[in-house]
Write a structure and sequence with these properties.
Layout lengths: L3 E4 L13 E2 L16 E4 L7 H13 L1 H8 L9 H13 L3 H19 L4 H16 L6 E3 L5 E7 L5 H14 L4 E5 L5 H14 L2 E4 L5 H14 L4 E5 L8 H17 L6 E7 L4 H14 L3 E5 L9 H14 L7 E5 L7 E3 L2 H9 L1
Parallel strand pairs: 5-8, 5-9, 6-7, 6-8, 9-10, 10-11
Antiparallel strand pairs: 1-3, 2-7, 3-4, 11-12
Length: 358
């Protein structure tokens, strides 16, 4: 379960508009005088709850194949060029990419030299520290409530787990008494609308849906309805697409512009859901979608399958390059290890490094 820190200001909502069709009766907003806007923060901090411990075990299991390959490098008794060569091969096989692998090796060599380390097990511990430090800029809380509503646009390729991730996030937000409205912007695929409608009904939240309509128009109507109904969060589920489908990527840009017209500053979050099993292709997707719609965060799913996990190191190095160019970090808000609600959890760099190298 996410850890939430929360301060909330409700204003009495005006009468609802006809654009939104409730999937279930929504709870009434409670007017409360307050001096600060609502702030719902999903904090990426480790905790010792049974749910988190169980989730970490799933993460370790999902990354076990990669972890064992890297761990075998440190079973010898000597620290020499052969060890570094084997480690380089293992990191590349883990989909860390050439750049991140070189960064990790260079930093590891420097620390081994500075500490005069002679024990392979201690070198592995140094690698864990190096990897943790590389990944730490990816840690960031998902903040909801600086504006009302907070408008979130979610994108991703087909099969990445986008709609399921939206459903899980919606459930946690609704569980914290946030009023959520979903926008089914995949208007031409009935199965997508039905899937989102199921999540809306299950979470007892409202949904704006339109068969065969313009996705940008649906998103515009959803934000308009969200403002009228006093919603805290509006989440737009866009159609899955490959980054090479230029006409569909242009549709995403149109949706983003439409959200901006519906509310100043919107969308406040532009989140890409990527499949952890796709390796370096995940980084390619991140770059392409960021160029098209300016991402603010990521959700990495399916790390319980054949995921190698090293791609997060490549994403972290890409973020370093962004910062050097004066651009903001695109953090990893959540990572997923299964289909259950509790299988989507906040990203923690040290936990991930430990799971990958255990």
């Amino acid at each position: 379960m996410f850890s939430f820190l929360r301060r909330k200001l409700f204003s009495a909502p005006p009468p609802p508009e006809a654009t939104a069709t409730p999937a279930a009766e929504a709870p009434a907003a409670i007017p409360q005088p307050a001096s600060a806007p609502m702030a719902v923060v999903a904090a990426p901090v480790a905790d010792a709850t049974p749910a988190r411990t169980s989730w970490l075990n799933k993460l370790k299991s999902g990354l076990a194949r990669t972890g064992s390959s890297i761990a075998q490098v440190f079973t010898g008794t000597r620290i020499d060029d052969a060890l570094y060569e084997e480690l380089e091969a293992a990191l590349l096989m883990a989909d860390a990419g050439v750049g991140a692998t070189q960064h990790l090796l260079d930093e590891l060599r420097r620390r081994v030299k500075d500490t005069r380390c002679t024990d392979p097990a201690a070198v592995k511990a140094l690698l864990m520290e190096v990897l943790t430090e590389l990944l730490q800029p990816l840690e960031a809380p998902l903040q909801i409530g600086a504006t009302q509503p907070t408008v979130m646009m979610v994108a991703g390729v087909n099969g990445a787990g986008k709609t399921t991730s939206i459903g899980k996030l919606t459930r946690h937000l609704a569980g914290m008494d946030c009023k959520v409205l979903l926008a089914a912007a995949d208007t031409f695929r009935a199965a997508a609308r039905e899937q989102l409608s199921v999540w809306a009904d299950r979470n007892r939240v409202e949904i704006v849906s339109q068969e065969g309509g313009d996705p940008a128009a649906v998103c515009f109507d959803a934000v308009t309805a969200g403002k009228a109904r006093g919603c805290d969060v509006v989440i737009a589920d866009t159609a899955g697409r490959l980054a090479t489908q230029l006409h569909l990527m242009e549709e995403l840009r149109k949706i983003r512009r439409s959200l901006g017209r519906s509310m100043e500053g919107a969308p406040h979050e532009v989140i890409l859901v990527v499949d952890g099993n796709t390796g370096q292709n995940a980084l390619t997707q991140v770059k392409a979608f960021d160029e098209a719609i300016q991402l603010t965060g990521l959700v990495v799913t399916k790390l319980d399958g054949t995921a190698k996990g090293g791609v997060l190191a490549a994403i972290a190095l890409w973020n370093r390059e962004r910062v050097a160019q004066g651009k903001p970090v695109v953090p990893v808000y959540f990572i997923g290890v299964g289909e259950k609600l509790e299988d989507l959890q906040t990203f923690n760099a040290r936990e991930f490094a430990q799971a990958l190298l255990s």
